[in-house]
């Protein structure tokens, strides 16, 4: 018996970025756990070439940028959402992460970030987590008219005590991550439905 495919929400796709280059990075561990915790309806593909992106140069950007930038921009543009696990350096966003976002924020009106749903989180040994870095990222996404998921905020504090053999052991953080991912899916479906172009099956109304 045939089924009506329109009743089954399609699997959404997201690009995941950990904003640290350090081996054993807490935020890479966090992103790895997020991928494992992702609901069935959301597939997260990590971008692993952050270290290869050169410093932003507007002259090169006018030509589209280097191949690794084109790859990231195209991946984000084609995805339904972007998920970022950011460290906090000197009370702010790591340079390598901000650099990558600067590259894919252009051209204005047709960037990889235009209207994209973005979920933020971060891990830090600090008792404040990455609150300041996430706040700065939210400001950056105003320019690109991206839709940052507002709640819940995920700050993995005292990160050096939160992982065991690569697994996030904090049940509170795990619960918040699940809620954030579910809210990311809901926001994507709601926005797609509101577009009126092609209503997304299963959208939250």
Automatic annotation (TrEMBL):
One of its GO terms (molecular function) is oxidoreductase activity. Residues 13-160 form the NADPH-dependent FMN reductase-like domain. This is NADPH-dependent FMN reductase. InterPro entries: Flavoprotein-like_sf (IPR029039), FMN_Rdtase-like_dom (IPR005025), NAD(P)H-dep_reductase (IPR050712). SUPFAM superfamilies: Flavoproteins. It is an enzyme of class 1 (oxidoreductase). Its EC number is 1.-.-.-. Keywords: Oxidoreductase.
């Amino acid at each position: 018996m045939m089924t009506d495919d329109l009743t089954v929400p399609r699997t959404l796709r997201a690009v995941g970025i950990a904003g640290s280059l350090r081996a054993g990075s807490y935020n890479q561990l966090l992103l790895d756990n997020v991928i494992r915790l992702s609901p069935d309806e959301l597939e997260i593909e990590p971008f692993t070439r952050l270290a290869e992106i050169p410093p932003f140069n507007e002259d090169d950007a006018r030509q589209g940028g280097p191949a690794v930038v084109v790859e990231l921009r195209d991946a984000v543009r084609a995805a339904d959402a972007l998920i970022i696990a950011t460290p906090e350096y000197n009370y702010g966003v790591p340079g390598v992460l901000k650099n990558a976002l600067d590259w894919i924020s252009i051209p204005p009106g047709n960037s990889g970030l235009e209207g994209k749903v973005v979920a933020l989180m971060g891990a830090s040994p600090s008792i404040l987590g990455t609150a300041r870095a996430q706040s700065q990222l939210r400001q950056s996404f105003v320019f690109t008219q991206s839709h940052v998921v507002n709640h819940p905020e995920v700050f993995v504090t005292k990160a050096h005590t939160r992982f065991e053999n690569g697994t996030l052991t904090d049940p509170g953080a795990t619960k918040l991550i699940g809620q954030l991912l579910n809210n990311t899916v809901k926001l994507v479906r709601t926005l797609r439905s509101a577009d009126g172009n092609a209503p997304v099956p299963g959208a939250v109304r």
